[in-house]
UniProtKB/TrEMBL annotation:
The lineage of its organism: Bacteria, Bacillati, Actinomycetota, Actinomycetes, Streptosporangiales. CDD domains: HTH_XRE. Pfam families: HTH_31 (PF13560), MLTR_LBD (PF17765). SUPFAM superfamilies: lambda repressor-like DNA-binding domains (SSF47413). This is Helix-turn-helix domain-containing protein. It comes from the Bacteria. One of its GO terms (molecular function) is DNA binding. Residues 33-78 form the HTH cro/C1-type domain. Residues 1-30 are annotated as: Disordered.
């Protein structure tokens, strides 16, 4: 599932050009990025030791070595933290499971958030619960097994729903790689990554790039079949008591078309919830809007 410390080092080494590191380039280079001996020289360690690290034959490098490698590879804060995680995960520790249930208090909070779409998801992108607006907005994504990553890469409809599909696909793969470094013995995560790698050429290419990322907030343009494109701002909030769950909210800017569209979606939902339609994972979810 996870290439480990050696794989991550190799992917970052391939990204650094000799020129950016102050080394001579040339057209006769047979590998992308830096050679092993060049990186070892920049980090101030022996070539033999670096080779053992990259080949997985040496574990638990010291903080000084990790800092030197991070500087030589020009790692950002997220990449540096990932490097430290890969170097520190003990082989014998039991896996930290991503719980499949949401605390009742969190479900009630979702139900009370009736003005913005909101959902609780795991770091594997499993949707555990969604309020009425999120259930309506993400109806197609939730129609399958409720995993947003599986929908993103494997359902052709996702390319229309996510206006900037390429960007979201890249960041989702990078987030999954970060999680796989933290939880290398998560069998469900390993199965998800194996399925995506087998069935999606785009995911295979993105996974092979070795990038890692964290998205705590940002913007998304979503295309609803009846309402058109909605420009929304999302925020991620870690769920207290479960480090692998988070609450995600989607808010429109004031006095925008997206705000008006969500108001219309609330109106449709309010009409249909009078029929007592059961919700997604216990939180109110309604059927298709009028066409």
């Amino acid at each position: 599932m996870e290439d480990g410390l050696g794989g991550f080092l190799k992917s970052r080494r391939a990204r650094v050009t000799p020129e950016s590191a102050g080394l001579p380039g040339g057209s006769r280079r047979r590998v992308p990025g830096l050679r092993r001996e060049e990186l070892a020289q920049l980090a101030g360690i022996s070539v033999e030791y670096y080779q053992r690290l990259e080949q997985g034959r040496s574990q638990r490098p010291s903080p000084e070595v990790l800092n030197a490698l991070a500087r030589a590879l020009s790692l950002d804060d997220v990449e540096r933290a990932h490097l430290e995680t890969l170097a520190a995960v003990p082989d014998h520790d039991p896996p930290v499971r991503a719980e499949a249930a949401v605390r009742p208090e969190l479900e009630r909070l979702l139900a009370l958030m009736d003005r913005v779409p909101a959902m609780v998801i795991t770091d594997r992108f499993d949707v555990l619960a969604a309020n009425t607006l999120a259930s309506r907005l993400f109806a197609d994504a939730l129609a399958g097994d409720g995993n947003l990553a599986r929908y993103l890469y494997l359902d052709p409809a996702a390319r229309d729903f996510y206006v900037h599909w390429d960007e979201i696909a890249a960041t989702t793969a990078a987030q999954l790689r970060l999680v796989s470094g933290r939880h290398p013995r998560d069998r469900e995560l390993a199965g998800l990554i194996a399925d995506l790698s087998r069935e999606s050429a785009e995911f295979r290419a993105l996974w092979a790039a070795g990038d890692v990322d964290i998205r705590t907030s940002g913007g998304k343009d979503l295309r609803h079949p009846a309402l058109g494109v909605l420009t929304l701002h999302y925020e991620n909030f870690d769920a207290p008591g479960d480090p692998r769950q988070r609450l995600v909210t989607f808010t429109p800017a004031a006095d925008t078309a997206a705000e008006a569209a969500l108001q219309l979606l609330r109106t449709w939902a309010g009409t249909e919830t009078e029929t007592g339609t059961e919700g997604y994972a216990g939180v109110s979810m309604t059927g298709s809007p009028p066409r």
